[in-house]
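Minutes, project huddle
Topic: does the predicted pose make sense with copper (II) ion bound?
PN asked that the exact inputs be recorded in the minutes so nobody has to dig through chat later. Recorded below.
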Amino acid sequence: MRNKFGLPFRNISIILVLIQLSAIFILSFPAQASQSHISPHSVRDIHLFTVEYQIQSTSTKKEVYRFDPGTLVVHQGERIRLHIHGFHGKEHHFRIPAFQIQGKVKKGETTTVTFTPQQLGTYELICDNHASTSSFGPMITYITVIPS
Ligand SMILES: [Cu+2]
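Predicted holo structure (tokens), as shared on screen:
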């Protein structure tokens, strides 16, 4: 027996069953409910690079060391794993005084530090070797903590 589409009724029954099974399958995996985009167990990896800029002309030669990027935005209570990659400059001794962090990164190496900012505000990650313009800096990244 065939319907007006020329399909046997048995085939339509099979299609209907497949549609029902698909719906059951899809509904059995609800979308992850997420009130906040910050999971207490997750860690966000951020990569920072030590770079050097130079200009040279017949009359002048200047260079400056920088962290790239120079601004980071993180959330309050967010676990951050900061990887600082040494590209340019032999060695950089850095500090994040607000988070009681200090360390050094050497050329060709990566130094990783972790922290979980609790207070809103903007904090400095500064290189002591290149802290000001007189020492080929300032080599500073500003870490801004915003509400989660
Ligand atoms: Cu430096």
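Observations noted during the meeting:
- The radius of gyration is 28 Å.
- The helical segments are 9-27.
No decisions taken; revisit at the next huddle.
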